[in-house]
Amino acid sequence: MMTTPSKDDPTLLVKTEKPLATSVWSHRHILGLEDFTLKEIELVLDTADTMKEVLSRPIKRVPTLRGKTIVTLFYEPSTRTRVSFELAAKNLSADVVNLSASSLSATKGESLVDTLDTLESLGADIVVMRHPHSGAPYIAAKYLKASIINAGDGWHAHPTQALLDLYTICAHRGNLKGLKVVIIGDIKHSRVARSNIWGLTTMGAEVTVCCPFTLLPIGLDKEQHHFPKVSIQPDIELALEGADVVMVLRLQLERQQGGLLPSLREYVKLYQLTDSRLKKAKAEALVMHPGPVNEGIEISPDVAHGPKSVIAEQVTNGVAVRMALLYLLSRGGE
Fold first, then answer.
1. Which domain, by its residues, includes 198?
2. Is 202 a catalytic residue?
3. Is 277 assigned a catalytic role?
4. Considering the domain boundaries, does residue 288 fall inside one?
5. Does 16 map to a domain?
6. Catalytic one of 108, 222, 225, 269
7. Same domain membership, residue 282 and residue 181
8. Per residue in 99-136, pLDDT tens?
C-alpha cells in the first residue's frame, strides 16, 4: 500500500480524506465492460476524479508508476486514444514504449503471438492494445503476464472510451440512473456503442439507439449474453424526445461499401443531428461524440461546436480516466 504523504507534498496522489476502496477491484485486464460491476465502474470514476486533481496542478506528474513499463501496441491508426494513454502513463512516471503497425515485424510476416513473446521478453508491465480483429486483446491476455488494456478491437469493444464517456456525463449530471441516453449512428460497426451500452445500462441509464435497421447489430433488441436490452427507435425526432444525453457516432465511410445505405445524402437527411432536431431533447441535454467527427455528415458544425457539446471535454477527461485505469491495474486488489 502507498504511504500517506502530507497534503503539501507535490507527489500526493490519493486524497487522504477519501481513500479509494480498491478492495472492490478484481481486474487484471480491461478487455470489455460486460464483466464490470457497478461498484467497479464507480471506483474507476472516483479514481479519475483524483487524477483530474493531479492534472490541475502546476506539475502534472506523480511517481506512482515509476519503474513500470507501459507499451502501446497499435495495429490501427489512432490519435486521441494513443496520445491519451501516452500522456496518462507519463503523468504517472511510467516508462512508455510506443509500437505501431508500420514499426512492427508484422509487416515482415511476424504473427501476433510472436510479437507478444517479444513484449514478454522485454518485461512489459501493461500493454495497451488496438487491433482490427475482434478478440485480439483476449489472445494477448492468455499469452502475456502483463496486464492488457483493450484500446479497441474490431467492432467488438472500446472500454476506455466508454468509461471516459460515463465520467463526462457524471461530471455534469452527478449520476446516470434514470437518464435517457440516445445513441445515433452506425451501431453495427461501432465498438464504442457496444461498450457504452454495457456501461450505461450497468449504471442505470435508459438507452435508446437510433439508426437505419441495416446499421443495427443482430440481437440488439433481445436480452442476450452479448448485449443488454435497449430501446430501438429509427425515427431520430422521436428518439430525441426528452433525451438527457445525445451520443453521436461517426459514420464509418470505409465500412459502408456493402450497400447498407442507399446514399450518404439520404443518411444526412434522415440522421444528421442538427440544431432543430436537438430541440426535441431536454434543454440541458449533453451532446457527445467519440471522434473523429465528420462534421456535416452525422452532426452539423453548429451542434458539434455549440453550447451543449462536451466533445472537447471528453478528450480532456480521457487522460484522467486512463490514468485511473493504469493506477488500478498496477495496484490490483490492494
1. 159-314
2. no
3. no
4. yes
5. no
6. 108
7. yes
8. 887 666 555 567 888 888 888 888 899 999 999 999 99
Taken in order 103, 107, 108, 110, the sign of the CA dihedral is positive
- List the catalytic residue out of 28, 80, 255, 305: 80
Identify the active-site residue in 29, 131, 156, 158. 158
One DSSP character per residue, 142-201 reads HH-SSEEEEEEETTTB-HHHHHHHHHHHHHHHS--TT-EEEEES--TT-HHHHHHHHHHH
Residue 1 lies in a domain: no
Is residue 81 among the annotated active site residues? Answer: yes
Query: Is 107 in the active site?
Result: no
- Residue located via cell numbers 438527457: 244
- Looking at residue 214, what DSSP letter applies? G
214 and 296 co-located in one domain: yes
Q: Which of 47, 69, 81, 202 is flagged as catalytic?
A: 81
The 3-class SS string of 199-236 reads HHHHCCCEEEEECCHHHCCCCCCCCECCECCCEECCCH
What ranges in 203-263 are assigned the alpha helix state H?
236-240
Q: Are residues 152 and 164 in the same domain?
A: no
Strand 180-184 with 245-248, pairing: parallel
**Annotated catalytic, 133?**
no
pLDDT tens readout for residues 55-70: 999 999 999 999 999 9
Band (pLDDT 50/70/90 cuts) for residue 16 is very low
> Which is the catalytic residue, given 29, 82, 130, 131?
130
Query: Do 206 and 135 share a structural domain?
Result: no
pTM: 0.91
Kind and range of the H or E run holding 121: helix 112-122
Instruction: Mark whether 127 and 176 lie in a shared domain.
Output: no
> How many whole angstroms separate alpha carbon 65 and alpha carbon 323?
10
Secondary structure class of 278 (helix, strand, coil): helix
CA distance 262 to 212: 10
Is residue 173 within 8 Å of residue 179, measured between CB atoms? Answer: yes
